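Posting for a labmate who doesn't have an account.
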Amino acid sequence: MANGTRTDHPTPGLPFVNDGRLPLDNPDAIERTGRNQGEGLWGRSDRTRDGGWVAFTTEPKNPAFAWAVYHHPIHGRTVLLIRDRDLGSLHHIWMFDRMGFLFRHGGYWWNGERWHRPGQVWDAAYEHYDPRPVANQVTITAADVLRAPNNPQQASVSKIASFTAPEAPVANWRDHLALWAQHRSPGARPLEACVVDLHAPELEAVSLVDMAGLAKIAAVPADDMPDLRYGGAKELPEPQDVADDGTMRWSVPVARDWAENYHQKNGATVLLSATTSYDTTQPVGLVDSHNRLRKNFLEDLTKPRGKRRKPLLKGDEAREAADSLAWTAATSLMYGSDYGLIPHFPLREVLVDAVVGHLAEDVERRKETQKEDITLSDLSGSTVKMLTWYFQHHPDSTASILGEICLQSRVRLGLAPAQVGELLRLSFHLDSGLDKGIIDRLMDMALPPSARER
């Protein structure tokens, strides 16, 4: 909602609010400002992995808002005024998301070294979002902005007690930045080191795409895109720009990342699906089982029963009964209160353990031969066939299973995800029985990003 007056990295467009009451050099004192000081007031502080700290407190004089402070041991401090209800979300981002501490243009983030695009594509092998650096980035500092004409006399600093959330970005923000610079203490971080914004070709307004462009890049039919009328915005990336009429627009690289994430989640379900005899779309394994059972049941229902007995059913009546019985049997293999006649979830765990156990034998063999490098041996044909069967019946689990295999192989065995991903791809080409093009599309979509390197 606003910048604190003693922040080192002002967010463009936000007003400045006097933070003079905050003990910015003492995270525990910041926490105590709000923690247990009254109903609805809260605060907390934590040490960060980079040697700095974060601290939050509800503002007692205006409890709809909270102060959020990130102290970096090298790059100084960020002081923000946020909505109190967002305290927990920002704490989680700063502490656990590994996506920097400065955010601009709908989630572009800076980690002290360079800018990255918003984290969207989950890398299960490392249990974090895949960091995607921005091409041709330029970091804009306060000194850069203040080289342009400005008039600090046209600006002001808000008081926290009377502060209300702004409805739009501050129009003459450069003037406010100039006033902020005038109030900097003599020992404050130099303006050349105060990060304000970034510039990159992909963020040029003329290159941004709207919802139709996002759908085109993702190759998703417009009818299948998230519906904004029913909360669909939650399924979309944060926009880089929002027009006055509410139209959201994204950079092309962000749109591509969203498309990659969308297909990682949904692509296998589409790829490994087929049309049933009822003209509905279902997992290809279920459709295959149904078709095989339809044929078997029809033969049983229409064959003569002894020398003098007639078939149980004939014609359309027999076909309808066979289809219905076959559908009941086929779905019973997959669904039900016990997750089907086949225990699919335990089977999933067994399959992951089988693959990781196979890789563990290769690693143990390397230790015995004292070789520095390891060549992974092909998975057994039976294991690959069972994995294929599982993916065909539960395609929505494909990415999570492959991700779990890559994660366990990295953590338990020290194997690089790219090496494991290449073995999975090769083994499926050898023994899955799937079309080679389908295998590559499946692996390109469902493997974690770090395991797709080829």
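Reply:
Got it, the structure tokens are right above this. The mean pLDDT is 93.
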